[in-house]
């Protein structure tokens, strides 16, 4: 079954998820996965839906009816085939905290990319520093580790980066995880 990746954004208010889910369900689509949050007064999210092939265009057209409430963009996703066993891969969890300043996400993501790691999920935020004043930046990042990558090298690179950025970075031991959700 084809899948669509929907990106959504609108002014935060009650009923946004309901309105989106009504359109999705009305076209026989299944809501598979999503990540949504209120950010700076906006409600933003990403939703993966599987949709019957004969309803794909109708669903995409119907999503336009939400204009004024939500801006929705539909992007074709990959179909999931469940005939082969899921490939196992290791995941590494990275937590970062430190004084907020521009460039932290750029520097951390650059280090991960140079190591050949793919970001599976990333959550970031800032909050008031309780004693020092200013803002603290926090990040929680989960990355997939290809079998050819040495975790010790990744850890050493992140520790060097933490020193340069003046932040604390903790790296958990890899865990085995299924590639399919």
UniProtKB/TrEMBL annotation:
Pfam families reported for this sequence: ACT_6 (PF13740)
Any single biological process term in GO: regulation of DNA-templated transcription
Ranges where the ACT domain occurs: 5-80, 93-179
Segments crossing the lipid bilayer: none
Matches recorded under PROSITE patterns: ACT (PS51671)
Protein known as: Amino acid-binding ACT protein
Organism whose genome encodes this protein: Intrasporangium chromatireducens Q5-1
């Amino acid at each position: 079954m084809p899948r669509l990746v929907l990106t959504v954004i609108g002014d935060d208010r009650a009923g946004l998820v309901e309105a989106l889910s009504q359109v999705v369900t009305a076209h026989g689509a299944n809501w598979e996965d999503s990540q949504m949050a209120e950010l700076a007064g906006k409600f933003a999210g990403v939703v993966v839906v599987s949709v019957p092939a004969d309803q794909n265009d109708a669903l995409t057209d119907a999503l336009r009816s939400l204009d004024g409430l939500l801006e929705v963009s539909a992007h074709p996703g990959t179909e999931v085939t469940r005939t082969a066993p899921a490939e196992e891969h290791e995941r590494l969890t990275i937590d970062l905290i430190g004084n907020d300043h521009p460039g932290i996400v750029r520097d951390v993501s650059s280090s991960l990319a140079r190591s050949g790691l793919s970001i599976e999920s990333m959550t970031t935020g800032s909050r008031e520093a309780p004693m020092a004043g200013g803002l603290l930046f926090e990040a929680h990042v989960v990355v997939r580790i290809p079998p050819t990558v040495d975790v010790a090298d990744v850890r050493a690179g992140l520790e060097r980066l933490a020193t340069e950025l003046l932040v604390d970075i903790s790296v958990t031991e890899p865990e085995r995880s299924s590639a399919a959700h």
